[in-house]
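Shipment paperwork, digital attachment
Item: protein structure file
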Amino acid sequence: MGNFLKWIGAGLGFSLGGPIGSILGYAVGSFISGFSKEDIENAKRFSAGSVNTQSGDFEISLLILSALVIKADGKVNEAELVYVRNHFKRMYGEERANNAFKLFKGFIKSNQISTRQVCIQIRQNITHASRLQLIHFLFGIAKADGFVTEAEVDVIKTIAGYLGVSQYDFESIKAMFYNSSDSSYRILGIEKTATDIEVKKAYRKMAKKYHPDKLQHLGDQLKKGAEEKFKEVQKAYDNIQKERGL
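Attachment content:
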């Protein structure tokens, strides 16, 4: 119990207040025996400064938004749950993944999540690069069972809008999870009719936008997710070059 309190307390930052704080308190109080919102507040004071709170804020945001996507099609898919758990295990190790998943199950059961209010709070407190990374992970969850449903796309699109992610960036990230003849162009945000110079310019723009260093403030674990986006941009550019014989 002590380890859980230390973990959740150290990773709150902005998350204790506003709609996210209410959801967090509900999840802990209702689904994790023996805990209350007061426990969280005490834990935060106890362990302030022990870890990167920006990373903790991102983590809580990710869990809540993931719960929204998983519930989008009216059912909780086991493959999607496993994806979330394994993602946290790769980033943080077994113990922290277990703690995160306790909260996650509470978020899934909660009917108190307002997508708009949660996203506004997230938008006000984390960087644009971090918000792009959230959208990338949400598509990963949606595709964990092999395909992305329209209901899941709609939810992620709504989340992206509230987070201040443009349609341009949303379509770019979305294309990373589809295999189609124009996926590479869509990842770079251009049409097939683009000139070679325009392709190169688009590649440089996206490579800069999705560079892992933009998530350096979140710690090495979360930079790994950014590297996946960065590799997709590089792959898209390579595919277009090969297609054009360059």
